[in-house]
Design a protein that fits this description.
Blueprint: H1 2-9, E1 15-20, H2 27-37, E2 46-50, H3 62-72, H4 84-95, E3 101-105, H5 110-113, E4 124-129, E5 140-143, H6 149-160, H7 162-167, H8 169-178, H9 183-194, H10 201-209, H11 211-217, E6 219-220, E7 223-224, H12 225-234, H13 238-247, H14 257-264, H15 268-280, E8 285-286, E9 292-293, H16 296-309, H17 312-337, H18 360-383, H19 406-419, H20 429-443, H21 446-457, H22 466-483, H23 486-502, H24 506-523, H25 526-542, H26 546-563, H27 566-582, H28 586-602, H29 606-622, H30 626-640, H31 646-662, H32 666-683, H33 687-696
Length: about 725
């Protein structure tokens, strides 16, 4: 950064560099450092003035600053002209032919700075300002950013001594993290620690963890982070100050203009104008295309001001508008990626249109980056569900104490879970579903409780144990029956059937599948019925009913091909392949699974693509090709990658272990099978017993015969 500024202001022509950034980020300190480094290049001296542009008051006017400069250049007070134009002309004539560095600190705007420019070759100007709107001819704009961890720890070392920092390295790292790398905050924290050399750094860190106390703790003598932010805040116009306060209610790390509009209760264009002005004022940051964010400490300051100025009702209304916007966006993503799904019609209906996602590709791109933001938004919404409610405003027939935000946030989790089904990211929803369940029970809302329980029990969403999944799903179905929730009644029956098949109870599973088939029929869920039909085929095979299985496979595949849904067709082909594999028809199974793998790969469904590869490995084993089986198993493991899907990983490892055994690689075979067995046993899956039996028969030189896994899941 120093070399960048040095290059910007050095040279024969007059050069100007403007340093902008958040209050407390160290603009002045950096400019002073550069000015000292450039003393030899400006032998005729340096001029400095604090223009106080960050103050709520008007600050130093250009005439007063020029008067000070002229006096510094040797002009007697009596000889200083009265008019600004005359002062500027004299100032520039005195600098002509000289090499002088002019340092204009804390500038407010262009009008304040322009008369103070030397206008002569050989001179240079350093300007610091919180505003990004200062535009000067030929100026180079330099954004001064917060420190990274290494830099912040270096500042601590300089102020406290490297030995003290090294002795409490973990506490030091957490300290600079909660300070957000803001140099002012780190300096204040270090000053407090320096005044108490015997106090552990961890004590201050513990106090700083409390967000409601953090700004109060970051204060020493007359220096404070909050006071620095207040300077910029109090300079805002009333409506812009309100926007600053209200958008802080967004608990996402960053947000778009649509989210800002929801919080402010205005359209996207008006919201964009407001947040762009906050960026220009140095109180907010750009974070990619149509993304904005607060520094963590600025957000805390803004929220504090919001609590002081806006009523609880105003804050609650803004949070509900924001939740409405987020839910609407997730529903749009479902409509783009699963256009035949009946789910959107069974959720809370938002008033907002949400974020525009024009097509399936846009929806997939949004899904890649939205996960952590949605988790933050849902957790915040649940944390702010009130304990007492005057009246219920949700759709449907909630009880008299149902808070207005509870059902929308539960439905946000419900909708989001469909978009991340079968991935490791679904585990991030588990604590949120548990929080939603506790909140729903506290308010006696059986509908929300049923939907939260279904999230906790859905087996193909990542639940590790079938026993826990079954318990949650049965309770969910019981509550749904009592409150008439058709969504849980249909989906819960389907998911319970999957659990029952995974534990070998195929006859009972078939009963649940038939129930789900009928319930989705009543809801108009044609594609859901097609998928259920393919699951029925697997149950029929396990029960020895081949004709019924073949009929179900043929009908499911036929309907899936005519549905126009790639997702439905890929799912049905996978289930058909599993059914045929379990029935000993490996060649036919491989044909279905290869097509399913291609479709899932094209649709960017890595978990299902990985499952297809794993099942193809078993097809190769059945045909006596262990080398090809290893290739398929490795492809499954590569596709599964960092998804963290334990079942898929175990399925592929079991196939790999069998193939290695067939090739005589006994040690690696046993290691792979043990990994698979641990996962399947913990899950309570039928496959665990088959792998255990294989391990029990393992002998160093025993001949290998490849049994087929039951292939459920």
């Amino acid at each position: 950064m120093t070399e960048t500024l040095r290059a910007a202001v050095a040279g024969s022509a007059m050069a100007v560099a403007t340093l902008t950034g958040l209050g407390g980020v160290g603009k002045t300190a950096l400019a002073v450092h550069v000015a000292h480094a450039l003393r030899d290049e400006f032998p005729d001296g340096q001029l400095y003035v604090d223009l106080r542009g960050a103050d709520a008051a008007p600050g130093v006017d250009s005439g007063s600053a020029l008067t000070g400069f002229l006096r510094a250049l040797g002009v007697p007070e009596s000889a200083v002209p009265d008019g600004l134009d005359q002062q500027t002309a004299l100032y520039r004539s005195l600098l002509a032919g000289r090499r002088v560095l002019v340092f204009l600190d804390n500038a407010r705007d262009t009008a304040q700075v322009r008369p103070l420019l030397p206008g002569a070759p050989g001179c240079a100007v350093l300007v610091t300002s919180r505003s990004r709107t200062i535009t000067l001819p030929g100026a180079r704009l330099v954004d001064v950013e917060t420190m990274d961890e290494r830099q912040a720890l270096g500042l601590l070392d300089a102020m406290l001594g490297a030995e003290r920092v090294a002795a409490e390295r973990d506490a030091a790292r957490e300290l600079v993290a909660v300070c957000g790398g803001l140099p002012l905050a780190v300096r204040i924290a270090a000053a407090r620690l320096a005044s108490r050399p015997g106090r552990p750094m961890a004590d201050l860190v513990a106090r700083l963890r409390d967000e409601r106390r953090r700004l109060d703790e970051l204060r020493v003598a007359d220096l404070g982070v909050e006071a620095t932010f207040r300077l910029g805040y109090e300079a805002l116009e009333p409506e812009l100050a309100r926007a600053f306060r209200m958008v802080s209610l967004c608990y996402m790390p960053s947000f778009c203009r649509g989210a800002a509009g929801a919080l402010l209760g205005v359209g996207e264009e008006e919201a964009e104008q407001a947040v762009e002005r906050l960026v220009d004022a140095g109180l907010m940051e750009l974070h990619g295309e149509d993304r904005y964010r607060f520094h963590d400490l600025v957000r805390l300051f803004a929220r504090r001001q919001c609590e002081l100025r806006e009523s609880a009702a105003e804050r609650a209304a803004a949070r509900l508008r924001f939740l409405d916007y987020v839910l609407a966006t997730v529903i749009t993503a479902i409509r783009r990626t699963k256009p035949h799904s009946v789910l959107p019609e069974l959720l809370h209906r938002p008033d907002s249109a949400g974020k525009a996602l024009p097509d399936e590709a846009a929806a997939h791109d949004w899904l890649v980056v939205a996960h952590s933001r949605l988790c933050d938004a849902a957790e915040n919404a649940l944390r702010h569900v009130p304990d007492e409610v005057d009246e219920a405003t949700d759709q449907g027939t909630p009880g008299p104490s149902t808070p207005p935000g509870l059902r929308p946030v539960v439905d946000l989790l419900t909708a989001w879970s469909h978009l991340i089904a079968g991935t490791a990211r679904h585990r991030d929803l588990e604590p949120l579903a548990e929080l939603a369940l506790r909140t729903a029970r506290r308010h006696g809302d059986d509908r929300s409780a049923a939907r939260a329980l279904r999230l906790l029990g859905a087996p193909h969403y990542g639940t590790e144990t079938y026993g826990r999944a079954e318990q949650a799903l049965r309770e969910s179905l019981h509550l749904a029956a009592g409150c008439g929730d058709l969504l849980v009644g249909a989906e819960g029956s389907h998911e319970l059937a999957i659990v029952l098949m995974g534990t070998g109870r195929f006859a009972t599973a078939l009963e649940q599948l038939r129930l789900a088939y009928a319930r989705f029929g009543a809801l108009g869920g044609h594609d859901d019925r097609i998928r259920i039909l393919s699951h029925m085929a697997r149950a029929y095979v396990a029960l020895g009913r081949r004709p019924a299985a073949d009929t179900a496979i043929d009908e499911a595949v036929r309907q899936a091909r005519s549905s126009g849904s790639t997702y439905t067709l890929a799912h049905v082909l996978y289930q058909a392949g599993c059914a045929l594999l379990a029935d000993g028809r490996a060649v036919a199974a491989a044909e279905q699974l290869r097509e399913a793998q291609r479709l899932h790969g094209k649709a960017r469904n890595p978990r299902w693509e990985a499952l297809c590869w794993a099942r193809l490995a078993y097809c190769e084993l059945e045909q006596g090709r262990p080398g090809e089986a290893i290739r398929c198993a490795d492809a499954a493991l590569a596709a599964e990658g960092e998804l963290g899907d334990a079942f898929c990983h175990a399925l592929a490892m079991a196939a790999r272990g069998r193939a290695l055994l067939a090739l005589g690689d006994l040690e690696r075979s046993r290691a792979a099978l043990r990994i698979a067995h641990r996962v399947m046993e913990r899950r309570g899956a039928l496959e665990a017993a088959e792998i255990a039996a294989l391990l029990a028969k393992w002998r160093p030189r025993a001949p290998f015969h490849s049994p087929v896994l039951s292939a459920h899941g």
